[in-house]
């Protein structure tokens, strides 16, 4: 067993062609240690979301390799990739991505239902309880606060106990307190459940909860800080712009 949940080697991702070509990632090599919590920061357009999408199998790099749980996902066909994403990876977005017509419970089990599985109701209850939504199972997104909606999305990502949780600005649409609750859940996923967390954020205070902060500039890793305080992150970030 290697101790990296995700290993990216020489990953390049270019969008567009000719005059409109943009190199979103340039030969990026990075390892995300098992059970670690990594924040990814950098100026707008530096490649953070692209890195997350390539690492999670939502996007394919043009070259380089991405190993998730030891498997090179760049070599997998669509079906195999879908299975790996389903079984090993959880994803959380800034905009929650919930279905408005479904209840919290139904949103949490939706990916399983689409994969023709029947999740154990005890597990669904447990995971909704863990994110603080006991008693809100029957509420639809419009009947929940932004923080509660994001916690539904976290519960959905946690349901199948994925080895890796990817979060793209998970607190971007939340106020401080709600954001902190979501971050605490991500921290707990790493500390109590040994899950690997990779989170893109613009917020130095959010990044300060991570074990390590990667800074991207123009598609390259410009710096890595271990367990930095928010002030140091903000300073480093200011120096990059
Ligand atoms: N689908 C796409 N088509 C064309 N260009 C794209 C596409 N997605 C991203 N890009 C470009 O790739 C670069 C990196 O984008 P990316 O979204 O990864 O940056 P980011 O660091 O996440 O930015 P932000 O903080 O603004 O969300 C940008 O220049 C962006 O315009």
Automatic annotation (TrEMBL):
The UniProt entry, under PROSITE patterns, shows: ABC_TRANSPORTER_1, ABC_TRANSPORTER_2
Tell me which residues make up the ABC transporter domain. 6-237
Among Gene3D superfamilies, the record links this protein to: P-loop containing nucleotide triphosphate hydrolases
Classification via InterPro entries? AAA+_ATPase (IPR003593), ABC_transporter-like_ATP-bd (IPR003439), ABC_transporter-like_CS (IPR017871), ABC_transpr_LolD-like (IPR015854), MacB-like_ATP-bd (IPR017911), P-loop_NTPase (IPR027417)
What does UniProt list as this organism's lineage? Bacteria, Bacillati, Actinomycetota, Actinomycetes, Streptosporangiales
What GO molecular function annotations does the UniProt record carry, in alphabetical order?
Answer: ATP binding
Alphabetical keyword list: ATP-binding, Nucleotide-binding, Transport
SMART domains linked to this entry: AAA (SM00382)
Organism of derivation: Nonomuraea indica
Q: Which SUPFAM superfamilies match?
A: P-loop containing nucleoside triphosphate hydrolases
What the entry lists under Pfam families is as follows:
ABC_tran
Please identify the protein, giving its name as recorded.
ABC transporter ATP-binding protein
């Amino acid at each position: 067993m290697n101790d990296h949940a995700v290993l990216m080697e020489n990953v390049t991702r270019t969008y567009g062609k000719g005059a409109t070509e943009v190199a979103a990632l340039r030969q990026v090599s990075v390892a995300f240690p098992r059970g670690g919590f990594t924040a990814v920061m950098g100026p707008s357009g530096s490649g953070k979301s692209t890195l997350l999408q390539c690492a999670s199998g939502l996007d394919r790099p043009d070259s380089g390799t991405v190993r998730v749980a030891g498997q090179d996902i760049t070599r997998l066909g669509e079906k195999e990739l879908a299975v790996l994403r389903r079984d090993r990876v959880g994803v959380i977005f800034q905009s929650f991505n919930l279905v408005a017509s479904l209840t919290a419970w139904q949103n949490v089990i939706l990916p399983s239902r689409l994969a023709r599985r029947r999740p154990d109701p005890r597990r669904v209850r447990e995971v909704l309880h863990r994110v603080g939504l006991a008693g809100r199972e029957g509420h639809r997104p419009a009947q929940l606060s932004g923080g509660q909606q994001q916690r539904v999305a976290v519960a959905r990502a946690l349901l199948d106990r994925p080895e890796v949780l990817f979060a793209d600005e998970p607190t971007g649409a939340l106020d401080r307190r709600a954001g902190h609750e979501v971050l605490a859940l991500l921290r707990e996923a790493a500390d109590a459940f040994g899950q690997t967390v990779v989170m893109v954020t613009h917020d130095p205070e959010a990044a300060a909860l991570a074990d390590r902060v990667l800074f991207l500039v123009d598609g390259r890793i410009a710096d890595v800080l271990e367990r930095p305080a928010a002030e140091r992150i903000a300073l480093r970030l200011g120096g990059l712009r």
